């Protein structure tokens, strides 16, 4: 019997469950490697070479190089892991998070200061149409 | 005998640590947040606990994808401060209490809570930011700390009820420790927030207000809330709130609420904070 996944209809949200974790294993271990200063330097000096060494698929390599975090998520990336890349890029978590929302960083910050994104209309995908 | 004297709940947003480390606490953005912790700093200076059992989650710092323990207790002598990608925070190392940590492990495993024992690990902002919020910037932390790491990165985390029951088992373990110690338990993380995807930035003040009220006065019923309600209503990362149930389970059924604070935002997150005294 398939696993019950009641969270698949939350809009704009990918829950990092067993399927995602399996898909993103090497990708997330790459992000984890950026905890070390020398790895951050090596990665920044030649991103593609560093990623290829780690035997990550081409789609994932491209998503990382594009800093396309929604794509990274769909390919198994987890935010606590790819947060290491925000920091490698000397970017705050706020700016990193904003990049996934289609909002400019300043606009996102204003939204947060005004109380954040409302949950109204954002609980179920069917509310979004 | 050792006794649990109080519980503290607080968010542990990394940007809060950075604000203190970089001297930004008086800025307009941050000042209201730090004001909410002034009472707590004065209170804890008077309480002067011997040990804090600090329930937090590791954010892919000590635990990568190789090994993912659901509950892990730090039994080592000390725990270094991790470099999370921007250099280690300039805060003191964390001194453990191995005797009590081992005592808790041996006790609760025999009550069917299969904790993972960690002798060596570094701790991240999940643990160091609450210490900063409560103790500011001392040269050494004024008490011993037992890290209790809970997996909330990989779904599923433990259920709220499992956490609550673990808290109760920790309480029984502390009560049977022979040394005369004042022990606090802190539950950290949350409140509503989402860091990922197009829904990032979600905040739910009503959910948070209800959670703050019920964890004080109706904790066992609140602990029964299923994961989906946190994720749907409080943001995907709002699930961190399950960790507060461990703190609450370790306190008496009735507690005295000394302080409650709530503030939006700190970076992407709603900050909630409680100080609860274990009344007789």
CATH fold description of the domain at 17-90 in chain A: Protocatechuate 4,5-dioxygenase, Chain A
Number of helices of chain A: 9
The count of strands of chain B amounts to 11
CATH class of the domain at 17-90 in chain A: Mainly Alpha
Query: What would you call the structural class of chain A?
Result: mainly alpha
Radius of gyration of chain B: 17 Å
User: What's the total count of β strands of chain A?
Assistant: 0
Q: From the coordinates shown, what is the CATH architecture of the domain at 17-90 in chain A?
A: Orthogonal Bundle
Question: What summary fits the major beta sheet of chain B?
Answer: 8 strands, mixed
Outline the low-pLDDT stretches of chain B: none
- Give the termini distance of chain B in whole angstroms: 16 Å
Structural class of chain B: alpha/beta
Note the beta-strand portion of chain B. Answer: 15-25%
Query: CATH superfamily assignment of the domain at 17-90 in chain A?
Result: Dioxygenase LigAB, LigA subunit
Give the topology.
The complex is a heterodimer of chains A (129) and B (280).
Chain A: H1 18-23, H2 25-33, H3 37-45, H4 47-53, H5 58-65, H6 69-74, H7 79-88, H8 93-98, H9 105-113
Helix pairs in contact in A: 2-7, 3-4
Chain B: E1 3-10, H1 14-21, H2 31-35, H3 38-47, E2 51-56, E3 71-74, E4 78-81, E5 94-95, H4 98-109, E6 116-118, E7 122-123, H5 125-135, E8 144-150, H6 160-175, E9 182-188, H7 205-217, H8 219-223, H9 227-234, H10 242-249, E10 256-266, E11 269-277
Parallel strand pairs in B: 1-9, 2-8, 2-9, 3-6, 4-7
Antiparallel strand pairs in B: 1-11, 3-8, 4-5, 10-11
Verbal overview:
The complex is a heterodimer of chains A (129) and B (280). Chain A is mainly α. Chain A has a domain at 17-90: Protocatechuate 4,5-dioxygenase, Chain A (Orthogonal Bundle). Chain A has helices at 18-23, 25-33, 37-45, 47-53, 58-65, 69-74, 79-88, 93-98, 105-113. In chain A, helix 2 packs parallel to helix 7 and helix 3 (37-45) packs across helix 4. The longest helix of chain A has 10 residues, at 79-88. The radius of gyration of chain A is 16 Å and the shape is flat. The two termini of chain A are 31 Å apart. The mean pLDDT of chain A is 96. By secondary structure, chain B is of the alpha/beta class. Chain B is built from ten helices and eleven strands. Chain B has helices spanning 14-21, 31-35, 38-47, 98-109, 125-135, 160-175, 205-217, 219-223, 227-234, 242-249; strands spanning 3-10, 51-56, 71-74, 78-81, 94-95, 116-118, 122-123, 144-150, 182-188, 256-266, 269-277. In chain B, the strands form two sheets. In chain B, strands 6-3-8-2-9-1-11-10 form an eight-stranded mixed beta sheet, sandwiched between helices. In chain B, strands 5-4-7 form a three-stranded mixed beta sheet. Chain B is globular. The interface between A and B is large, with 56 and 45 residues.
């Amino acid at each position: 019997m398939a696993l019950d996944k009641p969270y698949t209809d939350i809009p704009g949200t990918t829950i990092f469950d067993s399927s995602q974790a399996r898909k993103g294993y090497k990708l997330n271990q790459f992000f984890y490697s950026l905890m070390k200063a020398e790895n951050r330097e090596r990665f920044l000096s030649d991103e593609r070479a560093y990623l290829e060494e780690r035997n990550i698929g081409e789609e994932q390599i491209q998503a990382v190089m594009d800093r396309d975090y929604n794509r990274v998520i769909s390919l198994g990336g987890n935010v606590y892991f790819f947060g290491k890349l925000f920091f490698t890029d000397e970017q705050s978590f706020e700016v990193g998070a904003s990049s996934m929302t289609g909002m400019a960083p300043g606009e996102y910050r204003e939204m947060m200061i005004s109380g954040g994104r409302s949950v109204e209309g954002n609980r179920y995908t069917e509310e979004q149409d | 005998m050792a006794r649990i004297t109080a519980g503290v709940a607080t968010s542990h947003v990394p940007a809060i640590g950075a604000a203190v480390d970089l001297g930004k606490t008086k800025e307009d953005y941050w000042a209201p947040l730090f004001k909410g912790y002034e009472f707590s700093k004065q209170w804890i200076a008077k309480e002067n606990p011997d040990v804090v059992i600090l329930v937090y989650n590791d954010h892919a710092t000590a635990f990568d994808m190789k090994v993912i323990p659901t509950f892990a207790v730090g039994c080592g002598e000390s725990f270094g401060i991790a470099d999370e990608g921007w250099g280690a925070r300039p805060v003191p190392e964390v001194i453990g209490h191995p005797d009590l940590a081992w005592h808790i492990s041996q006790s609760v495993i025999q009550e069917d809570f299969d904790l993972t024992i960690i002798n060596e690990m570094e701790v991240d902002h999940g643990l160091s930011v609450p210490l900063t919020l409560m103790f500011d910037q001392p040269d050494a932390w004024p008490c011993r700390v037992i890290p209790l790491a809970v997996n909330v990165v990989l779904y599923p985390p433990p259920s709220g009820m499992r956490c609550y029951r673990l808290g109760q088992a920790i309480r029984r373990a502390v009560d049977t420790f022979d040394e005369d110690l004042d022990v606090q338990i802190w539950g950290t993380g949350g409140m509503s927030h989402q860091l990922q995807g197009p829904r990032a930035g979600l905040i739910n003040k009503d959910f948070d207000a209800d959670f703050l009220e019920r964890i004080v006065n109706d904790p066992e019923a609140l602990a029964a809330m299923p994961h989906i309600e946190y994720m749907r209503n409080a943001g995907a990362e709002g699930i961190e709130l399950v960790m507060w149930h461990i703190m609450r389970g370790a306190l008496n059924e009735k507690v005295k609420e000394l302080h409650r604070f709530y503030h939006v935002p700190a970076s992407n997150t709603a900050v909630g904070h409680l100080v609860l005294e274990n009344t007789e």
